[in-house]
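ESCALATION

Customer reports they have been waiting on this structure for their group meeting. Please prioritize. Original submission:
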Amino acid sequence: MDMSVWYLVGAVLVFFMQCGFAMVETGFTRAKNAGNIIMKNLMDFCIGTVVFMFLGYGIMNSENYFFGLIGMPDYQLFTDFYGFNWSNFFFQLVFCATAATIVSGAMAERTKFLSYCVYSAVISAVVYPIEAGWVWNGQGWLAGLGFVDFAGSSVIHMVGGISALIGAIILGPRIGKYTKKKDGTVEVHAIPGHSLTLGALGCFILWFCWYGFNGAAASDPAQMAWILGNTTIAPAVATVACMVFTWAKNGKPDVSMCLNASLAGLVAITAPCATVDALGSVIIGLVAGILVVVVVEVLDFRFHIDDPVGAVGVHCANGIWGTVADGLFNTESGLFYGGGVSHLIVQVLGCAAIALYTVILMTITFKVIKATIGLRASAEEEIIGLDITEHGLTSAYADFLPSAPGTLGGETVSGPVDISGLVPTELAPSVTAAESGHKLTKVTIVCNEERFGILRDTMAAIGVTGMTVTNVMGCGEQLGKTGQYRGVEMSMNLFPKIQVDIVVSKVSPGLVVAAAQKALYTGKTGDGKIFVYNVDNVVKVRTGEKDYDALQDQRG
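Update from on-call: job pushed to the front of the queue and completed.
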């Protein structure tokens, strides 16, 4: 097999991770910011390409590398186009974009777009290139010590995760995430993402692309198979561990946290994917699946740091764990494989050095941005949503309207509706329709969507066809039901319902109520409610007819 071709194919897969990150972050946040997050993930790569081309690649990969710390850009891609190593440039570029995009999720829904573009450029221009050169440039000082980070647990994920953590701290939480009580304690509120489906799609895309992320630099097919095996075992074990852990802790397996756990296992195995065996992968994945839950919840409940997608738990914590794990499970030099502590010390030293550099540079970057152009969107912009305020985008889902209830399935009446023996419900005299007086009465019915077909047919059978139907959210006795989102208790008291509004004059409202009760009754909680009101006036727009006459072509 030509490994040079696989090297480029793997790099293409890494590029497609931008799509995965975009879907994860969009799904785990609210719909009013979907366009903003998509734009950020797009510009991560585009801005990153520009700055990496002009500065980042040179200081990372230059042959003129000073003191094992930084290179001198030589711009061979412009001066020697045909002799330039384009394979290495493209490979390093897509990895650089990954480091930058990690930050987006933790700072989502409240960051100015311009500020995001600035710090994304800083990451691609100087943060990632300098520390990555220490490890992946043969002249780098960490490379000289034998530091192992095969595909970037620390070089990419820890750096992105630390940047995300610093940004989230300086930025502050989203409005409504935390509430301080009178006794001084802080109440944590869940802000669920708008589409777990998109989040899951992004997770699967990322896992698929990770085979290129970890395997692209394999030296031969045998090593590539070894890497791909480890890249499968660790996330699978991490996800199972997370499922069991959250199930035991919360009473239910946490869906979104298990998606995070898959990514956590992938991050953790990224550094040692080519140096550990199956047992090592299992242990690394096991720790990763629990570690991500602990870190996400500690940041949320203990430190009140708002990270909407769990980027810090996934990338920072498990980037550190995966890098250190190579010092424990490396089959040639790991502590548990008879290699002593020397390699472990190098791994810890490398993590600490890269982390310290990232903390210093990114803290300065965020502080400067905050003091100049500003880092955070205004409260009004955050509440309205960044799609409209930052991009003039009314909605990322402008053409998606609620489906008509009658088209969504559910039960219908087979054959003629039986209304024999139907006795009108007794209502208060003030709302009883006297046929001679042509009294106007409004009947509002809130019910389950699946019974709408029966209700519609029953209303037609008693002579009512004019109705207005609305998709609504509501609750009744279910108010006390609670659930959890990423470990945070949340009320589950709103359920999708159908609201049917009917105005009658000729048909008795008591008959409408009785027919609705018959159509909707199942004997279960949530069958619905019926409200009856007096109506003072009705005006038909087309003809100007009023009251009783305005309703006659509706047979009501």
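Sent to customer with the following note: The radius of gyration is 30 Å.
Escalation resolved.
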